[in-house]
Each structure stands twice: as C-alpha cells, then as structure tokens.
Amino acid sequence: MKPISEIQMLLLPEAQSLPAELENFPRFRYMGSKFRLLPWIHATLSEIGFDSAADVFSGSGVVSYLLKTMGKQVHSNDSLAFPSVLTTATVANSATRLSPNDLNYLLESKASAPQERFIRDTFEGIFYTPEELSSLDDLWSGIRQLDSPFKRAVALAALLRSAIKRQPRGLFTVSDPSRYQDGRRDLQLSVREHFIEQVEIYNAAVFSNGKRNVSTSGDVFNVKPGSDLVYMDPPYVPMADDNCYIKRYHFLEGLACYWEGKEMMMNTKVRKIAKTFTPFAYRHTAVEAFDQLFRHFADSIQVLSYSSNAYPDLETLRSLMGRYKKSVEVLEKEHRYHFGTHAAAKRNVVQEYLIIGS
Ligand SMILES: C[S@@+](CC[C@H](N)C(=O)[O-])C[C@H]1O[C@@H](n2cnc3c(N)ncnc32)[C@H](O)[C@@H]1O
After folding, report:
1. pLDDT, tens digit, for every residue of 334-357?
2. Which of 133, 176, 293, 356 is least buried, going by the fewest C-beta atoms within 10 A?
3. Do the Cβ atoms of 171 and 243 come closer than 8 Å?
4. How far apart are CA 81 and CA 98, in angstroms?
5. From residue 19, how far is each of 14, 34, 58, 70, 205 by CA, in Å?
6. Does residue 40 have its Cβ closer than 6 Å to ligand 1?
C-alpha cells in the first residue's frame, strides 16, 4: 500500500479538497510555516473572489504555492534571499527543470579558484565535515555556470533543502556537528546524495498554472500594491532571542547567494550574518508597522495570519485594519506549534486567526 503523504494527512481531519499539485510542494522546515494550516487557509481563500495575490512574507513559500495551485497570479516576496530562491524555483518557474545532463554537470563540477572555496575555508569545524563543506563549494561552482536563472533557482533550492536536511535540528544556532547523530536517514546521507534526491523533488514541483507569477526579495514596503488580494504573515515580536530568522537560518541565507553582499560576523562561533532590522519584530515599532502595512495595501483584499500569543493583540489589529477596510472579519482556529528538539519541546497551543479586510 502506498504510504499516506503529509498532505493527505492534512486532509483527514477537515476533508477539504486541496488542489492535487500541492502534494508536490517540497516541505521546508521553517519557523512559523503555515503548512499545517493549509486546509483552513485554502477553504477560507476559496470563499473569496480574486484573480491575483501577493504573499508578501513568503517564508517557506508554501502559501504562495497553494495560491499557484488555485490558479491565481502570484507575487511572492520575502526580505530574506533564500525564501525567494525557493519561490523562484517553485512559483515563478512554470517549465524549467534540470536535465540528467545538468545534474551530471553539477555533480562533476569542482571548485578550483580560491574564492570558490569560501564555504570550506570559512566554516571548517562548523555544522558539516570538511568533505561536506567542499561538496557545497563544488556544487555551487557548477550552479554558477548554469545558463538559465530558473535552472539556477531549481539547483539552489535543491542545495538549500539538502543543507537543511543534513543539519540535525534544521537550524543553524549550534556548531557541534557530532551532537545529534541519532541515525536518522537525513543525517546519514551525504550532501551530494541529498542533492541528487532534491533535484528530482524540485523538478517534480515545477508546473504552470497559466499565469505569469513572480518572486522578489525585499522589504514588504517595496512591494508594489495592486494585487487583488494580499496575504500577510509577518514575523511576531519574538518571545525568545532565537525566534530571529537570521539567527536560525543564516547559513541558508548565505548559501542562497554565496554570502555575496552579506555582512558576516566572523567573531561569532557559527559565523553568523548580521541581523537586518524589521519593524514587525519589536514592541515599540510593531503597531506603527501594521498601520503602515494596512495603509500600503489599502486597495487590496487583506488576509492577515495572526495568533493569540503575539503582540499587538487581536483587537488592536482589527481596529488598525478597520482604518483602511470597510469590513473586518476574524476567523479562529486552535493550533499546536512544535518548536525545538524532543527533549526541549515546547508545545504551544494557540488560537490562530485569519483577519480578513475587504
Ligand atoms: C511567519 S514567516 C512567514 C511564513 C510563511 N507564511 C510560511 O508559511 O512559511 C515571516 C517571514 O517574514 C519575513 N520578513 C520579516 N520582515 C520582513 C519585511 N520587513 N519585509 C518582508 N519580509 C519580511 C521573514 O524573513 C519570514 O520569512
């Protein structure tokens, strides 16, 4: 019997008919991912009439991909670079796959120039073995030579997912590579073995929905308004320091662009990238940021994902959105978030909200 897929599991409790293509989305472990809320988000969006949508804090890209499977014209955006690689490969890309020749070419590539051995030189003793670090450099040197931007995005997305799968807890805060060797398959495969699998997975995720979809990387306030609907899932004011995206995923952010233009903090144990400011993550700037956000997209139908353990509270947000939208409706759902390792697992039950302004 074919094992039941993660997406089919999602269907069980709610018996929603999610679009079939969604099964092909390469799930990416990402803090705050709405993967488990997709049936609810899909059911909610299905009730709204719209042709184009912007997912302006795209993260893992799963909501953008959902919108694409729903036949919408999608603009996907995130201030980090690696989420935009993921959505370039899966959302903006409607036809380009890596051929067996492309894959062979990448697997045979060797980093030769000193500037192509940056990862091995910079991260020695951190996260991966020297051989694995060299594999990342070698694959990158081949990716650089690929002639099409979509091919590069598919290859880089495969490399990013290989790197996160090979990292014990899927985050890059701890430097000791031997700490969590618990025999899991993902930790036993080499980066190259993962890469071969991931190329196949990302190739399978490519499809056309007949629309011209785009992916950008930049601040939300640089996204040109104009989509019929805007889906907003901003970061929350963090409860703990490691809620910061760049702290958890700095290695992926660097890997997405070979650390070009990134300010590295060489005095940190794990060679972090400097944090960039976002007004959504601080108590003293969050309220003003939400006001500006709703004003910026005043002409679109607004759908905001939010939760009961976040700041500011629901009533504040409802009234802020009410300044720009005639009707504001709140949908609610209980949700259990899983953070961290088994031992340190903090299971938080929160109310999830979809705040809809029209
Ligand atoms: C809660 S996550 C989004 C999760 C996503 N909906 C998913 O299902 O995977 C918030 C995202 O907002 C991004 N972000 C933070 N500040 C931003 C800003 N000012 N402009 C655009 N994106 C921003 C972060 O990089 C992060 O990926």
Report:
1. 877 665 555 445 566 789 999 999
2. 176
3. no
4. 21
5. 14, 16, 19, 7, 13
6. no
Q: Which residues contact 128 (CB under 8 A, 6 or more apart)?
A: 136, 166, 167, 177, 191
**Token duo for residue 230:** 């805007």
Contacts of 110 (CB under 8 A, 6+ apart): 138, 141
* Count of C-beta atoms within a 10 Å radius of residue 305: 18
- Kindly give the distance from the C-alpha atom of residue 111 to the centroid of ligand 1, in angstroms, as a whole number: 33
Distance 78 CA to ligand 1 centre (A): 6
pLDDT tens digits, 98-137? 999 999 999 999 999 999 999 999 999 889 999 999 999 9
Longest alpha-carbon distance in the chain? 60
E strand or H helix at 165: helix 149-165
Inter-helix orientation angle 149-165/100-108, to 10°: 60
Distance between Cα 131 and ligand 1 center (Å): 33
| Exposure string for 214-231, b = 16+ CB within 10 A, e = fewer | ebbbeebeebeeebbbbb
pLDDT tier for residue 168 given thresholds of 50, 70 and 90: confident
245: tokens are 């995206």
By the 10 Å C-beta count (0-12 exposed, 13-18 middle, 19+ buried), 335 is classed as middle
123 to each of 22, 159, 167, 224, how far by Cα in Å? 36, 17, 14, 38
Q: Is the CB of 306 under 6 A from ligand 1?
A: no
Token representation of residue 309: 């353990």
Domain-wise residue ranges, the chain: 6-282
